[in-house]
Amino acid sequence: MGQYYETCDGSSSSVTINTTNIPLGAEVMEVMVYRKRERRKYSPLTNDNTVFLVTDKIPLAVEISQRSAVNKTAGVFIRGEEIVFKVQLHDPSGYLKTAASVDYIWDFRDGNQLVTHREVTTHTYSTLGTMNVKLVVEAAFPEECPPTSATPTPRRPTSPPLTGTQLRQLGMKKHV
Questions:
Q1: Residue 167 counted as domain residue
Q2: In terms of pTM, does the model score above 0.85?
Q3: Rounded distance, CA 15 to CA 164, Å?
């Protein structure tokens, strides 16, 4: 990754990493902790590293509940009663708050689809069986338009249409 950060926040620190120019995939983050002994002199205390994933996907979790469900932990719900789907996005930096819109596109896989801007939605299944729900989250961010050119495109001079006399001189006939 080749990015280095220094923080001096006492007993706890935090850092936000800009992943704009980092390719998608796994990266290794190494953290080194030093103790300041004197001015410009540090002693290493500890270090650790971990693998993190850079992705263009939005990590999320969906909590599924039903008021009258008997066995929620097993994912067993009652047919014909409303099921609540609550989305929890993983956005520690608050980046998605800058989006012009965040769309939740639900496919309940029973012929019903829904697009909403809310983290919570409900759906009622009328058939029995195992259901697989598909959720796509899309975030739209405003993008500035490129500056317009100050120099106008030069126009080609246009000549007036040829008259009948000019056409005869060129050996052409005028079609009306």
A1: no
A2: no
A3: 80
